């Protein structure tokens, strides 16, 4: 039996996400909303993301963060490279953007604005117990996370079955410190 490649993992996870019932998806999203503010300092800056239809989380997830954090920044995509950032001010402040994403319409900050965040929520298709994250393959986060403060909490958000024992890893992959899952909450990864 061969180890799965990243592309094989991507196909497997996306197939599983497409098969989710709307009821299970809603229940998992609600669970994440209840868990997302664990350890978030009042008034702090948090980086997160606007979930797509196939990603865990919802706009309620971002609204919950806004109620605690002083500022919630979400990515704004440009050409391939590090992500730019803009403040999430609510659903009314979002517009359709490239790659099937929704992005804020307000002021946009340079990629190094990520340094202001004490906690960074990172989307993923899967993550392993060592902290190796499987993204979509475009490399936006791998190019961005190196700009974060060295003590920032890197938390990837996945479904419970997407927290796996081992994924393939490339030298440029940035490891996560925690996984947030609907059933297990905040799970330390690696040697934490």
From TrEMBL:
Q: Which enzyme class, named as a word? A: ligase
* Keyword line: ATP-binding, Ligase, Magnesium, Metal-binding, Nucleotide-binding
Q: What is its EC number?
A: 6.3.3.2
Q: Where does ATP bind?
A: 6-10, 133-141
Check the record and name the InterPro entries matching this protein. Answer: FTHF_cligase, FTHF_cligase-like_sf, NagB/RpiA_transferase-like
What reactions does this protein catalyze?
Answer: (6S)-5-formyl-5,6,7,8-tetrahydrofolate + ATP = (6R)-5,10-methenyltetrahydrofolate + ADP + phosphate
**What cofactor does this chain's UniProt record say it requires?**
Mg(2+)
SUPFAM superfamilies named in the record: NagB/RpiA/CoA transferase-like (SSF100950)
Residues holding substrate: 50, 55
BP GO terms, sorted: folic acid-containing compound biosynthetic process; tetrahydrofolate interconversion
Q: Which GO terms describe its molecular function?
A: 5-formyltetrahydrofolate cyclo-ligase activity; ATP binding; metal ion binding
Q: Does the keyword Disulfide bond apply?
A: no
Q: Which family does it belong to?
A: Belongs to the 5-formyltetrahydrofolate cyclo-ligase family.
Protein name, as recorded = 5-formyltetrahydrofolate cyclo-ligase
- Organism per entry: Rhodococcus opacus
């Amino acid at each position: 039996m061969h180890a799965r490649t990243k592309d094989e993992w991507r196909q497997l996870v996306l197939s599983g996400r497409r098969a989710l019932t709307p009821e299970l998806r809603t229940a998992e999203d609600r669970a994440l909303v209840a868990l997302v503010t664990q350890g978030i300092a009042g008034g702090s800056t948090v980086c997160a993301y606007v979930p797509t239809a196939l990603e865990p989380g919802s706009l309620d997830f971002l609204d919950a963060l806004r109620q605690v954090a002083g500022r919630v920044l979400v990515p704004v995509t440009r050409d391939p490279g590090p992500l730019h950032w803009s403040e999430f001010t609510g659903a009314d402040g979002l517009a359709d953007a490239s790659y099937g994403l929704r992005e804020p319409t307000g002021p946009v900050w340079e990629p190094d604005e990520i340094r202001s965040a004490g906690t960074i929520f990172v989307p993923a298709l899967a993550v392993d117990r060592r902290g190796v994250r499987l993204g979509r393959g475009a490399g936006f986060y791998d190019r961005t996370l190196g700009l974060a403060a060295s003590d920032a909490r890197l938390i990837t958000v996945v479904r419970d079955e997407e927290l796996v024992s081992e994924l393939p890893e490339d030298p440029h992959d940035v490891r996560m410190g925690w996984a947030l899952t609907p059933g297990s909450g905040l799970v330390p990864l690696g040697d934490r």
